[in-house]
Design the sequence.
């Protein structure tokens, strides 16, 4: 329990420091709705890392994206630093970046077994915890007349958990965000 509290305190401290950094780098110009640019976006991402997402754009095509994922009995938080590069098509940008994630919860597991010709089910909870490193590469299109953006990306990550496992996946996903 002490380790969990220390980790939560560290995550909170990093979030506060990152927020101070965000405020220091905010754009001074506010794009109009009828524009290909935006400062913030909130929406959803569908993929292996599915959840609610928030994106903040900085000067020079830099952005921070946070994803909060929910599974039964488990929550995950992902933070990504992204660099945006324009394409020749107006409103279409490609982006790449890196970040990290943390997952914690108490998922339920079931064990099925036979004993003396009877089938039994044993259900138990396990305190699960995992941390990992993420990358991201994708395309995003911001619609000019309406405040929405769509994206398609691949977010490879590797994670390790408290049960001694390591896991790697490519995690393709699509997103829909309301921009403001």
Sequence:
């Amino acid at each position: 329990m002490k380790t969990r509290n220390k980790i939560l305190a560290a995550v909170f401290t990093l979030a506060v420091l990152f927020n101070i950094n965000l405020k220091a780098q905010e754009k001074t110009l506010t794009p109009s709705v009828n524009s290909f640019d935006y400062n913030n976006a909130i929406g959803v991402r569908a993929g292996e890392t599915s959840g609610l997402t928030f994106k903040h754009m900085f000067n020079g095509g830099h952005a921070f994206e946070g994803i909060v994922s929910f599974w039964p009995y488990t929550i995950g938080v992902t933070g990504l630093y992204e660099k945006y590069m324009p394409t020749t098509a107006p409103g279409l940008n490609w982006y790449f970046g890196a970040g990290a994630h943390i997952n914690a919860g108490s998922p339920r597991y079931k064990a099925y077994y036979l004993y003396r010709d009877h089938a039994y089910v044993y259900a138990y909870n396990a305190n699960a915890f995992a941390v990992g490193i993420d990358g991201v590469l994708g395309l995003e299109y911001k619609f000019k007349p309406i405040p929405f953006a769509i994206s398609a990306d691949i977010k490879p990550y590797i994670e390790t958990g408290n049960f001694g496992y390591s896991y790697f996946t490519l995690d393709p996903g699509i997103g829909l965000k309301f921009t403001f």
